[in-house]
Amino acid sequence: MTFGILSKKDRLVLAPAITKVLTLSTFGIDLSKQSVYETLPRTLSKDAYDFVDTVSYFLSGKSMKEMSIHRILTGSNFIRDSVTQEQFENLVGKNEDPQQTESILKSILPSNLHASLQARLNSSFTSSSPLKNVASPITSIGRLATNSVDYPQGYPRKGLKSVLNAVLYSLPKTVGIKTECEVKRILVDDGRVVGVEADEMYYADMVIYTGFAKDLPSVIEDLPKSYIGDLNGIVRTKSLTIWLGLDKRLREFNYIGSEVWFKDNPYWAMPISNYDSSLAPEDKQLVGFAFVIDEKKSEKSETKKAYETIYRAIPNIEERVVMQHEQITIPEKAAVTIDGKFADIRTPIKNLYLAGTDTDSRSMGITRAAYSIVEMLGVLNEDGNLYQ
Ligand SMILES: Cc1cc2nc3c(=O)[nH]c(=O)nc-3n(C[C@H](O)[C@H](O)[C@H](O)COP(=O)(O)OP(=O)(O)OC[C@H]3O[C@@H](n4cnc5c(N)ncnc54)[C@H](O)[C@@H]3O)c2cc1C
Q1: Which of 60, 210, 336, 352 best tests ligand 1's pocket when mutated (most atoms within 8 Å of CB)?
Q2: Rounded to the nearest whole angstrom, what is the distance from the C-alpha of residue 162 to the centroid of ligand 1?
Q3: Is the ipTM of this structure higher than 0.95?
Q4: Mean pLDDT over all residues of the chain?
Q5: Residues 200-220: what's their mean pLDDT?
Q6: Which one of 180, 197, 215, 357 would you pick to mutate in the ligand 1 pocket, going by the greatest count of ligand atoms within 8 A of its CB?
Q7: Residue 139: which H helix or E strand, with range?
């Protein structure tokens, strides 16, 4: 996505506002409770507000009044919130109580500033970083001013299934996987997890739950009320993706990447068969349109409104449609909003841990799920459960 569609005046007004929050963030100021809306300069045009609101919806599923500015900074790569190889090794390395040698930074700065500065220094100067394409804040501001913040998008050939296949291929032979096997109950004895009940009983010293954290009380009895209350604070968002199969390739979708409609009922469109021609018959085209839908309204009325938006935005598409499919999902778990909660990795039950996107607010989608696993490994290590 590019800021190029905004007027030069809007971009000039936005640049110092972004610089300001980047600076605050660099010095360790917590911006997770500051909304995007309250950060925006009041002199922006209506188009700019609509654009930022749309970006907010697609980054968190919520509006710019509910989403934190921190989310924009991390979700748009303005600041880096990733884990370096060195940090990862520190998290999962065997705990052998190494002698603590305090860094110079740590000895002269308060702890919050030290951690933040250290991360910034690492991200800006570590040449061996595994995530080389993540922009440093300074270069990102430059790109905004010169109207070029868009990044090429990747799409795995054969879809997400190919990512799963790669993961499965990399697993050791000792790993067993059971699909179509729903866990009905997590078994607890004397405050400690002892297994799960699914198609049969599975006994274990440790259980990792990656389903919706909010649904945990439905598979486990006697969780403390305060804990259930916290889980209920997790905010979810529903999305609708409309897949349209077109009888020919349209000029409007003659690109690799995606396109955002940000006027009234925003959508995110992607002509997916341009990436992978096997996703549509020869000379035909498959295009996905993703919407965030209002949970208070019926799915039927939201779907109808979505079709109307597509047909209004691209008037000649309707007569080209030969296949249509609607998908309603919760694409990501906890929405990153100023009031929304996240689940802790540890639970009140000993050796029952949570992982997945309900436990981590960094990045999006699969990357966010991966971050949650890195953090979980760190917690298991702290608890002495990583190496048996
Ligand atoms: C249509 C769609 C498109 C997406 N596109 C992208 C994309 O292009 N890029 C990207 O990065 N992300 C994408 N995402 C988001 C990404 O898939 C999710 O953010 C990510 O998979 C979340 O990981 P997770 O581990 O938190 O949860 P999940 O992937 O949902 O994993 C939880 C697992 O737990 C299982 N489970 C839950 N309860 C039980 C139970 N009681 N018993 C047994 N098993 C249970 C579920 O079946 C599920 O397999 C997309 C999501 C959707 C829906």
Answers
A1: 210
A2: 15
A3: yes
A4: 81
A5: 96
A6: 357
A7: helix 137-145
Looking at per-residue pLDDT, the higher value among 324 and 7 belongs to 324
- The minimum-distance atom of ligand 1 relative to the CA of 329 is 53
Average pLDDT over residues 179-200: 96
Read off the tokens for 377: 């490994």
Nearest CA to ligand 1 atom 33: 211
Residue nearest (by alpha carbon) to ligand 1 atom 51: 331
Percentage of the chain exceeding pLDDT 70: 81
What is the percent of the chain where pLDDT is above 90? 41
Residues with CB under 6 A from ligand 1: 182-183, 210-211, 219, 241, 327, 329, 331-333, 356-357, 364-367, 369
**Cα-to-centroid distance, 329 and ligand 1 (Å):** 10
Q: State in Å: Cα 270 to ligand 1 middle.
A: 20
> Distance between CA atoms of 306 and 266, rounded to whole angstroms?
9
The dihedral over CA atoms of 43, 52, 79, 354, expressed in degrees to the nearest 10, equals 140
> Over the stretch 222-243, which tens digit does the pLDDT of each residue have?
899 999 999 999 988 889 999 9
- Per-residue model confidence as pLDDT tens digits over 329-387: 988 788 878 888 899 999 999 999 999 999 988 877 888 898 999 999 999 999 999 98
In sequence order, what DSSP letters do the residues of 315-382 get, joined into one string? Answer: TTSGGGEEEEEEEEE--SSS--BSS-----SB-SSBTEEE-STTS--SS-HHHHHHHHHHHHHHHHHH
Q: Which three-class secondary structure string do you get for 147-213? A: CCCCCCCCCCCCCHHHHHHHHHHHCCCCCCCCCCCCCCEEEEECCEEEEEECCCEEECCCEEECCCH
CB 187 within 8 A of CB 193: yes
* Residue nearest to ligand 1 atom 44, measured at CA: 182
For the chain, domains (ranges, CATH) are: 1-153 (no CATH), 160-235+335-382 (3.50.50.60), 247-313 (no CATH)
Task: Give residue 153's pLDDT.
Answer: 60
Q: Is the pLDDT of residue 313 over 50?
A: yes
Please state the atom number of ligand 1 nearest to the C-alpha of residue 219.
41
